[in-house]
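Practice problem: predict the structure.
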Amino acid sequence: MNLNLTILGQAIAFALFVWFCLKYVWPPLIGALRDRQQKIADGLEAAAKSQRDLDKAEQLLQQKIDEGRKRAQELIGEAEKHSQLIIEEARTAATEEQNRIRKSAEEQLHAEANRVREELRADLAALVIEGVEAILKKEVDAKTHDDYLKQITARL
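Answer:
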């Protein structure tokens, strides 16, 4: 066997093998590699987009939390003002009620004092009439008695 012929046969077989691989094996492998590469690139892009969306969502969440805290502080401030207003109104109402009760008590006291004075005048007038009757020891008719009583009451 000739060495050159063997090498030539092996070279032809190798060339046919390379041609067969390039024609039928290599394109599906390259296509699969490109598909896999594209899927990986798409996955990385989706991960980057998800990270950006997550960052935006976190910023939005922080903004909402800050707005909520600010609103809560405003509500607390409004509630404190409202409570102070209610307390002030209650104080005013209590003062008005106190003044009304005091005025009513004073009016009742004056009315009671006037009633007691009138009773005392009437009692005093009756005592004076009895004293005058006892002194005079004379009978006085009813009309004269009423006149004396009115005169004494008017003076008192």
